[in-house]
Each structure stands twice: as C-alpha cells, then as structure tokens.
Design goal:
The protein is α/β, with parallel strands linked by helices. It is built from 13 helices and eleven strands. Helix 8 (159-166) links the parallel strand 7 and strand 8. Bound molecules: pseudouridine-5'-monophosphate (PSU) and manganese (II) ion.
C-alpha cells in the first residue's frame, strides 16, 4: 500500500530551509482553540493593530509579521483536508481560523485526522512533529502544556512534554500556564532531560504572570546569541532532545499570580464536576480565566506570543549564522 503524501512544506519555507536561512515554526491550536473568534475591544494590543479581524486571526497575522520583521521566515503549521501544512498562507490561515469544525490536534490525533481528511489546529506537541519532519530548529508559542493540577488522582500530562523530549527544537514560551501544576511540570522537564533556558531571567515564568523565586530555570542566558550557543552545544550532547526557552511575559501586560488563583481553583472544581476531561481541560480553564479577567488574559496572551515570535526569530537568526 502506498500512502498519500500527508505533509506539505510551502515553497517559501522549503527554500529558506534549503538555503540555511532562519525559520520559526508557529502553532495553530491557539488559532482554533485558544483565542476568541470575535474582534477584541480594549484592553488588547490587537485592537490597535487589526481591529476588524477576529482576535484569533489577527493574532496569526501579527505573529507572521513579528517573525518576518525579526529576519526569519514563519512556518505556521496546521492541517487542512488531511494534509499537514508547514507554512500556511494568509488564505489558508483564514480558512482554518473560521472553521468551527477544526479539531485540536495533538501528536496522537494527526494520523486519524489526516486519514479522515480533517482540518485542525496543531498543539505544541503536534507542531513539534512538523518541526521534526522539516528539521526546523526554532518554534515560538505562548505557553506549553504540562502536568495538570490533581495529577495524583488523574495523571493528565500534556503530550507537549514527551514531544519536547524527542524533538531537537528550541521552543520559545513564557513558561507554562498558571492553570498547571508548575513545580511538577518543571520536575517532569528535568526528568526528561529537557533544559529550561531562562532568557534574561532566573525564574520560571507563569505565562500570564511573572514567576517568583520558588521556581527556577536550569540555565540562564543573557541574550538570543547565548541561547543559540547553549542549544547548539546541547544538541551535540543530546541530538534528539528539545529545549524550552523561557521568555517572561512583558511586564506591562503581566497579571499578578494571586489575582487569577481563586478563579483557577474554582474553574478546576467546576471542570471536575462537569466531567470535563482530556483535551477539553486546557481550553475550558483558559476560557474561565479569560472571562474572569475581562479580556486582560487575551491582552497578555497576545503580548506573550508576539514577544516569543520576536525572540524566536532572533534565536533562529543566530543559529543560522553559526552554520555559515
Ligand atoms: N496556551 C494558550 N492557549 C492554547 C494553548 C496553550 O494560551 O490554546 C495550547 C497549546 O497548543 C498547547 C496545548 O500545546 O494548549 C496544550 O493542550 P493539552 O494540555 O491538552 O496538551
Ligand atoms: Mn491533557
């Protein structure tokens, strides 16, 4: 049986990769499941830039241009009609962003979705599968998935962690989401041998909140050049293992951790009572936090993603220059 080709790399991305130019992968679970599909009023940095577009699409457009202005080529990953695209065009992004049937695709879901001709946004884990297929070394996202609170009762651990452990890609994030058990998430990364490199920080950031001394990183880097140097050395010792680059949320957008703690605790109880499980847990909790902060979470989410896309471009440019 000869299988049909299920991965398509855009011409722009494949040309850039062949020429050894800087490429930054971007995910689309945030487009299909992470952000509202309506235009955002203030407070949100999108309203100034792209007021007419739904927030999810505006964000994807913003990330694409943030990577480009940093001198790298964006490779946005997502599935359309069963084909995993690496380098979605604007028209393809719009299609995915408006598709209410789009699935949330993690690694385990890619095969079934592909065989069934489905459309979907890729999580960090599934986007890493694309990075492995195309040999893309830098990927920018918001916050990775990790070990969920209550894991002692129900071991809900995001496939993002295992994917990081087997894919040699630097994932730029603002740490992991505050909705998770963050100390357990950091311990799991440690067990998997995934370095957590703090960019200009020694504390593990909490995605929408700045971190604190209670949780650290495994290495500190002053700038993108040092991150690239650490990654290049890491890949000589561990050629198949990823790295998590922890870039704190921009200070003017960060929300104090205590402010969302009560909401998260209440949302967790609500989720358990309502029997929300598996892949639905993360979108449910994010939605509750978003509502409780009257859209400020969207503001920090967008600011984090844009900042990570810029940092990703800078790291990719440094890595590309090392191979010249
Ligand atoms: N962070 C966000 N919004 C999101 C996600 C992260 O602010 O939608 C997505 C990412 O794609 C991440 C996924 O990979 O949630 C984790 O889902 P799970 O816990 O089901 O593995
Ligand atoms: Mn999960």
């Amino acid at each position: 049986m000869s299988a049909r080709v299920v991965i398509e790399i855009s011409e722009e991305v494949s040309d850039a990769l062949a020429a050894g130019q800087a490429v930054v992968a971007l995910e689309t679970a945030v487009l299909t499941h992470g952000l509202p599909r309506t235009p955002m009023a203030s407070p949100c940095n999108l309203s100034e830039w792209l007021p007419a577009l739904p927030a999810n699409l505006a964000l994807s457009v913003l990330l694409d241009s943030a990577v480009r202005s940093g001198g790298a080529v964006p490779a946005t990953v997502g599935m359309l009609d069963g084909t995993l695209h690496i380098g979605l065009s604007r028209a393809q992004l719009e299609r995915l962003g408006h598709d209410t049937d789009a699935r949330k695709l993690s690694t385990r879901d890619l095969g079934a979705a592909s065989a069934q001709g489905a459309c979907g946004g890729t999580t960090v884990a599934a986007t890493l599968a694309a990075c492995a297929a195309a040999n893309i070394r830098v990927f920018a996202t918001g916050g990775i998935g990790g070990v969920h609170r209550g894991w002692t009762d129900r071991p809900d651990v995001s496939a993002d962690l295992a994917a990081l452990a087997r894919t040699p890609t630097a994932v730029v994030s603002a740490g992991a989401k505050s909705i998770l058990d963050l100390p357990a998430t950091v311990e799991a990364l440690d067990s998997l041998g995934v370095p957590v490199i703090g960019l200009g920080t020694r504390v593990f950031p909490r995605f929408i909140s700045q971190g604190d001394d209670s949780l650290g990183v495994s290495a500190h880097a002053r700038d993108a050049a040092e991150v690239a140097a650490i990654c290049a050395a890491h890949w000589q010792f561990a050629p198949h293992v990823g790295a998590l680059i922890a870039n704190p949320p921009p200070a003017q957008w960060a929300i104090p951790a205590q402010e969302v703690e009560t909401t998260i605790a209440a949302a967790l109880i609500e989720a358990t009572r309502a029997g929300i499980r598996g892949a639905a847990v993360t979108p449910f909790l994010l939605d509750r936090v978003q509502r409780a902060t009257a859209g400020r979470t969207v503001g920090v989410n967008v600011a984090v993603l844009e900042s990570n896309a810029r940092v990703g471009a800078a790291i990719a440019v440094e890595l590309a220059s090392m191979h010249r």
